[in-house]
Each structure stands twice: as structure tokens, then as C-alpha cells.
């Protein structure tokens, strides 16, 4: 090979949903990597998920354990995960205990033992857990230069045997600058576990990865019975596609409101319906989904403030059957209420449902409930995260209706407490007005990016059949203040 030749680096799939995207397509094969973080962060589970995804009888995985959990105890817990495959144990996944060597001998002896096992097996993946224990117990009085030489020789041996290596260790971020282990590594992956009030938030960061562009920043991940699942921050970052001016219009289930919007909601738009408590935001969203089901368009509803059975029961109060569509798969009701939720996780859940069902309509009810379901640390980025989420969803071609509660001040027409009205293509504002000693309801279409819309302020009611829009409110001025005054008759 000449100096000008370009080497193609193959990618090793991790078997972790979302992680390959964060890494830029997978792990560089034969790379020498470190998985670091505090205790309980998920380092061992991540390593097991990777080895079970890649190990075969021809190219097995070698997992070296050191003074931590014995392999039997480790497997007792790891077998609870769905990625665990008992058939791979022995031939595909092999465990080697280095404890005795580490306790009684020096780094050279540890290296010789690792090399001996690697040469005998020819593994595709090698894990040393915990590598920091190896260094502490075997190095003794060894200086930094000797330790760096040991790590370099270990990396050279494993790479020459075409093994992708992971050294697992409990490190602090302050050690990154001076620890020679991090200097030699091709990839450095940091797992964080933060306690925020009643929430535990897990995050993953690629601090270093030679030879390819990874996605920067902190990415949320969760450990479930399926194992580790990562939620990349890349959704929605590439901007929104241009929309054709002649898109079809989706009826919302309220004919008079369709007419006010110029024929309905343009397909692929994001519509924000804002109003105070009890003004009918959820009723409108329910009718929007029901109308889609009626014309054969599957729908998804993400709710945060009531359970799916309660949501279906409320729809039944308006004469709408949401039970049958859920059974036949045309309606998916996603209930998300963990205390450590992230926007990226919600986005992944909805996008998966869209892909699975072919949904054309999505409802998010409500943004206030969504924010409350987030872990406290995610609420500070709520606005930016919503931007990515709405962009990602509308690029799939679905039409989104989001509800948001605003506090009625009777002095201004607020559109959202989050300053996110710019994220929406279309906005409908509901509000209360006091007329002749009665509290009545009025709506108006504030904006529609796709074209013209009615400028009327119309009265509406919530009936047993849902939201019904009446005629334009006339004879008053100051309607949007909520305290209108009769228009004085012209002087004679």
C-alpha cells in the first residue's frame, strides 16, 4: 500500500438502537476504545449488548473479568435482557477471569495472559472489565511512561489480531487530560447518570472517535428489558423541506373551521391550537383524529395527562369510537409519563409509530403536559428540542396538531407561554369573552403560512357532538381583549 492509497474502514454495528447513528455509522472495526463513567451508568450492559450482537462461533467475543463481578453473577443479571443469547455462550461468547494474574503478577504478565487467550481464540471483539482495576492492582509502582507503553502494546497486539477492543473503567472527567489510557484510545465513550429531583437521566457522549465524524453533544439513552437504547440528537437538525404550494387540504372534522382555513389544514403542516383551560383544545384535536380515521387516514395521539382508556372514554362522550381503531391498528395512542422522559425519546417513539402504521395525522396533547413529563434537566432545552421534533415529524409528511394552554389575561392575545409560535405553520386561538353578562367562547385563525385565511372572530360552542363554530361576532369591538364593548350606533 502506498502513502496515497485510501484505506476503507469497515464499520462494526453495535446492536444498540440509535448508537450507530451517533457514532457516524457504527464503530470503526479493529478500533481500540474506552467505555468510561461512574458506577451504575450502564457500561457493562452496553459492552454485553455489543458482544452479543457481533459474536459468532467463527469470530467469538472474549470478555475478560477482573476483580469485579464473577462471570456467573454477571450473566445472572445480563440474561434478563432481550439481547442475551444463551446459545452463544461458550462458542460465541467466552469469559476469562484475570483476577489471579492481576493480584499476583505485574503488567507484563497481564499482557501476556491477554495475548495468549486472544491468539488461541482469534476474537472479533475483546472486552476488559474493569481495565482500571488492572492498572491499579498490577501497576503498583509503575510509572506513567511504563503504563502508557503497556497500553500501547496491548492496543498493538489486539489490533494486529483484528479485534475491536473495549476497555471498561470507572473514571472521572478530570482524568481525561492526564491519563495515558485515553491518549492511546481510538474512541472514548462517556456514560453519565444524573439524578435530578425524582428523575434519573442517562446520557451518552462521544468524547473522541478517530477516523469518522460522530454526532457531538450529549445524547439521552435508556436501559430497558431490551437493553440500551440511544436517542440521537440528529432528528430534525437538517431543516425542513420545501413544501409544494398545491398540497391537499386535510379536513379537521369541523366544517365551518375548515372554511375559515381556506379548505382545511395543508398536508404536512404543524398546527398549534392555543387557549385557556376548558376552551376545547383537546376536543378539536380529537375531532381532527376522528375525521382522519373516517376518511381512511391512520392517526397517532401522544398524550401526557390522561391514560389511553380515559382518552378513548372521553372521545366516546362525543360519539366517537376510538377502541375499534386501536384494535385494528389505524389509531395508536401513545401514553408517555416517566419522570425522566426526554424529547428525543418521545420523538423516536412517535416516528417509530408513524413508520409502523403509515400515520398521516399526529396529535400532541398537550405541550404543557409534555414539558411536565420531562426530567428537569431537559426542560431548559424544551424550545430547541420542540423545533427538532416538529421538523423531523413534518418532513415525514404527517400533519401535526399540538395543543397548548395559555393563561387568559384579558389584556393581550398570548399564543404560547413557550415563545414557540414560530415553530407552527398555522395557529388557531381560542379564548373566552364576556358578552352581556355571559362567558362565551370565540376563536380566530391567527396565521396560515400556506395562504389566505378568514379574518373573522367567530363564536363557537362545545356540544355533545363536539366543537361547533357559529357566525362572526359583530356589534362589538375589543373582542380579542376578552372584554368587548358594544359598537356605538352611528350618530343621526
TrEMBL record:
Q: Which enzyme class, named as a word?
A: transferase
Q: Which GO terms describe its molecular function?
A: ATP binding; hydrolase activity; protein serine/threonine kinase activity
Q: Name one Pfam family in it.
A: ATPase
Domain KaiC as annotated: residue spans: 10-244, 248-492
Q: Which UniProt keywords apply?
A: Hydrolase, Kinase, Phosphoprotein, Repeat, Transferase
Record has Disulfide bond as a keyword: no
Name recorded for this polypeptide? non-specific serine/threonine protein kinase
Q: Which organism is it from?
A: Limnoglobus roseus
According to the entry, what is the taxonomic lineage of the organism?
Bacteria, Pseudomonadati, Planctomycetota, Planctomycetia, Gemmatales
Amino acid at each position: 500500500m502506498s502513502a496515497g492509497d485510501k484505506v476503507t474502514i469497515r464499520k462494526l454495528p453495535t446492536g444498540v438502537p440509535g448508537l450507530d447513528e451517533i457514532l457516524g455509522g457504527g464503530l470503526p472495526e479493529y478500533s481500540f476504545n474506552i467505555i468510561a463513567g461512574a458506577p451504575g451508568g450502564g457500561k457493562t450492559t452496553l459492552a454485553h449488548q455489543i458482544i452479543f450482537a457481533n459474536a459468532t462461533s467463527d469470530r467469538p467475543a472474549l470478555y475478560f473479568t477482573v476483580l469485579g463481578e464473577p462471570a456467573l453473577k454477571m450473566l445472572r443479571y445480563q440474561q434478563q435482557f432481550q439481547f442475551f443469547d444463551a446459545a452463544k455462550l461458550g462458542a460465541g461468547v467466552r469469559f476469562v477471569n484475570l483476577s489471579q494474574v492481576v493480584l499476583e503478577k505485574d503488567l507484563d504478565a497481564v499482557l501476556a495472559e491477554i495475548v495468549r487467550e486472544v491468539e488461541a481464540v482469534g476474537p472479533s471483539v475483546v472486552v476488559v472489565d474493569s481495565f482500571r482495576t488492572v492498572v491499579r492492582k498490577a501497576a503498583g509502582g509503575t510509572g506513567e511512561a511504563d503504563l502508557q507503553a503497556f497500553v500501547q502494546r496491548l492496543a498493538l497486539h489486539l489490533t494486529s489480531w483484528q479485534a475491536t477492543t473495549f476497555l471498561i473503567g470507572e473514571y472521572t472527567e478530570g482524568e481525561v487530560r492526564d491519563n495515558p489510557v485515553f491518549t492511546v484510545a481510538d474512541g472514548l465513550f462517556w456514560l453519565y447518570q444524573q439524578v435530578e429531583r425524582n428523575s434519573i437521566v442517562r446520557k451518552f457522549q462521544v468524547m473522541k472517535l478517530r477516523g469518522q465524524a460522530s454526532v457531538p453533544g450529549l445524547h439521552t439513552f435508556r436501559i430497558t428489558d431490551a437493553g440500551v437504547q440511544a436517542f440521537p440528537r440528529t432528528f430534525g437538525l437538517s431543516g425542513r423541506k420545501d413544501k409544494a404550494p398545491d398540497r391537499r387540504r386535510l379536513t379537521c372534522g369541523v366544517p365551518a373551521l375548515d372554511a375559515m382555513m381556506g379548505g382545511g389544514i395543508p398536508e404536512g403542516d404543524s398546527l398549534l391550537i392555543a387557549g385557556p383551560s376548558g376552551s376545547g383544545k383537546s376536543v378539536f384535536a380529537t375531532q381532527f383524529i376522528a375525521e382522519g380515521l373516517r376518511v381512511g387516514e391512520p392517526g397517532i395521539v401522544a398524550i401526557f395527562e390522561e391514560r389511553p382508556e380515559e382518552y378513548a372514554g372521553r372521545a366516546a362522550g362525543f360519539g366517537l369510537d376510538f377502541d375499534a381503531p386501536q384494535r385494528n391498528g389505524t389509531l395508536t395512542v401513545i401514553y408517555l409519563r416517566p419522570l425522566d422522559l426526554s424529547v428525543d425519546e418521545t420523538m423516536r417513539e412517535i416516528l417509530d409509530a408513524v413508520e409502523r402504521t403509515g400515520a398521516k395525522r399526529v396529535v400532541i396533547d398537550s405541550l404543557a403536559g409534555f414539558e411536565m413529563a420531562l426530567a428537569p434537566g431537559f426542560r431548559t432545552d424544551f424550545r430547541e428540542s420542540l423545533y427538532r421534533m416538529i421538523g423531523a415529524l413534518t418532513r415525514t409528511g404527517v400533519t401535526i396538531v399540538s395543543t397548548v394552554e395559555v393563561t387568559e389575561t384579558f389584556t393581550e392575545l398570548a399564543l404560547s407561554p413557550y415563545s414557540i409560535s414560530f415553530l407552527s405553520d398555522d395557529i388557531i386561538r381560542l379564548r373566552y369573552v364576556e358578552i352581556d353578562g355571559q362567558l362565551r367562547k370565540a376563536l380566530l385563525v391567527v396565521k396560515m403560512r400556506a395562504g389566505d385565511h378568514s379574518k373573522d372572530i367567530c363564536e363557537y360552542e362545545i356540544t355533545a357532538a363536539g366543537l361547533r363554530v357559529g357566525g362572526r361576532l359583530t356589534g362589538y369591538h375589543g373582542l380579542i381583549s376578552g372584554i368587548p364593548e358594544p359598537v356605538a350606533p352611528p350618530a343621526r
